[in-house]
Design a protein that fits this description.
Length: 187
């Protein structure tokens, strides 16, 4: 008589192989998700910079871009992980043009020396309370930053934001102070 079914042992072997394959692929899925969060953070920040520049051009008035040192939505440690932009009025007051945007969870800007010149106490226009760095886009699209300096921020995993060396996975966003153009480099 011909056998038309699997034995219990054959079925258990197939289930065990599938379990091993799933277990070995979990770290790869975590790396993919982490990479997607980094890409999303870079896209969000670079889009915010471009939009602030565009608003300065469209409204023919200065727009201040602020990068905040704050608690992330789900974090405990304070990091540079939020930004917003403000229109400057003739009377000197500021009107917030957008809600405060947070980088995706698990990402932050590197505070290590030399990796993010737009933030920290040595960055442009530092304000201690609440802690943020700011610069302005002028109505012609340029910034009030020194043209002779390089201005950039580096996005890393939140747990690596204070490391003194760059991790294997990071994204650096560069801002051209002369014309306000934004570009980024990923490793």
């Amino acid at each position: 008589m011909k056998r038309n079914a699997f034995t219990l042992i054959e079925l258990l072997v197939v289930v065990a192989i599938i379990g091993l394959l799933i277990t070995s692929s979990v770290p790869a899925w975590n790396a993919i998700a982490e990479g997607n969060r980094m890409t999303s953070a870079a896209q969000s920040l670079s889009d915010g910079l471009r939009l602030a520049r565009q608003l300065a051009l469209a409204k023919n008035s200065p727009v201040e871009f602020r990068i905040f040192n704050t608690l992330p939505k789900d974090g405990v440690t304070s990091n540079y992980c939020a930004f917003a932009y403000y229109q400057l009025t003739e009377s000197g007051t500021t009107n917030q043009l957008t809600r405060t945007n947070f980088l995706p969870s698990g990402t932050a800007l590197s505070t290590a020396a030399g990796y993010s010149t737009l933030i920290g106490t040595t960055g442009p226009s530092y304000c201690a309370s609440p802690a943020y760095n700011s610069f302005r886009f002028r109505p012609d699209g340029s910034t009030d930053l020194l043209v002779s300096s390089n201005w950039y921020v580096t996005i890393v995993r939140e747990r690596e934001s204070t490391n003194t060396t760059l991790p294997n996975n990071f994204i650096t966003i560069k801002l051209d102070a002369f014309n306000g153009n934004v570009s980024f480099y990923r490793k």
